[in-house]
Amino acid sequence: MRAPLDPDLFDAVCPSDLTPIRFGDKWAGMVIRCLEGGPRRFSELRVPLRGITAKTLTHALRALERDGLVQRSDERLYALTPLGRSLLGPMDQACAWAREHWEELLDAREAGTAAVVS
């Protein structure tokens, strides 16, 4: 049996929100990360994805299925396909890049927010 997903898998100030590199929509990369350790049920995915609605998660999963990255089994488990699993390496590289440039990204975000408010 798989260990449950960590409810704190995604920190509120996670680089995934900060990095300009996106894999699909806002949630796709995080869904892929949740499935990295093996198949999961819809309800399991909602634990670490605290800000997502059921409708939005359904939309994200369907888009990932349509793109061939995720498959849904008869047992209603979602799993990465080999194509989806092939994204894990590039995602690791993007996360490493975001960690390396964390301070620059934060400074740019703050400067951009200040400019919009002015």
Query: What fraction of the residues are assigned to beta strands by DSSP?
Result: 5-15%
CATH class value: Mainly Alpha
Segments where pLDDT lies below 50 for 5+ residues? none
CATH superfamily annotation = Winged helix-like DNA-binding domain superfamily/Winged helix DNA-binding domain
Percent in helix: 40-55%
By DSSP, the count of extended strands is 3
Per DSSP, the total helix count is 7
Largest sheet: 3 strands, antiparallel
Could you tell me the radius of gyration in angstroms? 15 Å
Label the structural class.
Answer: mainly alpha
CATH topology: Arc Repressor Mutant, subunit A
CATH architecture, by name, is Orthogonal Bundle
Taken together, the total number of domains comes to 1
> Whole-number average pLDDT?
85
Order of helices and strands: HHEHHEEHHH
Give the CA-CA distance, first to last residue: 53 Å
Shape: globular
The side-by-side strand order for the widest beta sheet comes to: 1-3-2
